[in-house]
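Need a sequence for this fold. Nothing fancy.
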């Protein structure tokens, strides 16, 4: 009896060791060729990225600076086939060909412009539902946050760059344009016009617009906070009607060391080009208010409404003179708003 008890106890003690000694099958390993080199946040947005090949009328106002043939990326945000891109790619378009990630060519048309933010919306023609990117919260972005910049080149090859938010700041540019909160993304993508800027979850938080600075470049992204609240207005009305239109005079300016702004040129169809203003004039006041920067110039210029006469105080030949310039609603210059 005692012998049987000892044998039983030894069996219980040795059984785990015997079990552990049994060879186990190795876990399956993925073939490196089956593993995508792209981060997951890039893969999530890729199906919604399309290439836009755009033809504009050669005589259109925008073609003088942008050319009549243009290219950019767009991101589908609505399953009906609506995609967002930068306005300068599609303004004055007479034909748009979209190319999907599987290489299909699809006609598209411009349906909305937001020239204040610098965004445009196109509609892909064809049956849906289309793959849709998720729109994130750009106000949650902070300097140092991880980003991906995702677009395509003219051969429809995917172009993506992993980067981060370098800064979030006010940004003004020569063509009567200013963002209160522009996102500066580093590094810049080699293909940036209309690219989606996504967060670590693959949600779109911005649309890449401009390449800035000297190499190594950064790029400016328009936050989706400027787009999400007005996207339905752009689809339905073609422009944002919930905020006042800005007066526009058609000046190209640059900030001047020591204060104020210098006139560098004129839009080919803008009222400023038909006024007594000259390239090189130093603007020091707007409607009697002194301005010390390009940002202050825009703030004063936009206080009125289209049709107002703008009084510009310019320093020329050692004296300051006031020059009256009538303003207009610039949407009237561009398709599909031209009358």
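Here you go.
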């Amino acid at each position: 009896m005692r012998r049987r008890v000892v044998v039983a106890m030894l069996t219980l003690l040795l059984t785990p060791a015997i079990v552990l000694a049994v060879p186990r099958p190795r876990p399956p390993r993925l073939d490196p060729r089956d593993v995508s080199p792209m981060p997951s946040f890039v893969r999530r947005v890729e199906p919604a990225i399309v290439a836009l090949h755009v033809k504009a009328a050669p005589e259109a106002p925008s073609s003088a600076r942008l050319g009549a043939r243009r290219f950019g990326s767009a991101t589908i945000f609505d399953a009906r086939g609506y995609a967002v891109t930068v306005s300068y790619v599609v303004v004055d378009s007479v034909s748009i060909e979209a190319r999907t990630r599987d290489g299909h060519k699809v006609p598209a048309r411009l349906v909305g412009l937001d020239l204040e933010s610098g965004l445009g919306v196109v509609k892909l023609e064809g049956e849906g539902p289309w793959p849709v990117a998720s729109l994130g919260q750009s106000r949650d972005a902070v300097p140092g946050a991880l980003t991906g910049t995702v677009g395509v080149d003219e051969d429809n090859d995917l172009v993506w760059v992993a980067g981060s938010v370098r800064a979030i700041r006010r940004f003004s540019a020569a063509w009567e344009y200013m963002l209160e909160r522009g996102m500066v993304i580093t590094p810049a993508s080699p293909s940036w016009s209309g690219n989606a800027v996504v967060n670590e979850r693959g949600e779109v938080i911005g649309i890449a617009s401009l390449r800035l600075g000297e190499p190594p470049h950064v790029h400016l992204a328009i936050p989706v906070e400027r787009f999400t609240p007005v996207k339905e207005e752009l689809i339905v009305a073609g422009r944002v009607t919930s905020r006042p239109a800005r007066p526009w005079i058609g000046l190209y300016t640059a900030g001047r060391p020591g204060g104020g702004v210098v006139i560098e040129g004129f839009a080919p169809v803008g009222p400023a080009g038909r006024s007594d203003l000259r390239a090189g004039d130093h603007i020091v006041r707007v409607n009697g208010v002194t301005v010390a920067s390009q940002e202050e110039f825009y703030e004063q210029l936009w206080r009125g409404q289209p049709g107002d006469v703008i009084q510009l105080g310019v320093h020329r030949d050692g004296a300051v003179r006031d020059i009256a310039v009538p303003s207009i609603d610039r949407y009237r210059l561009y398709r599909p708003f031209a009358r």
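For context: The CA atoms of residues 33 and 299 lie 55 Å apart.
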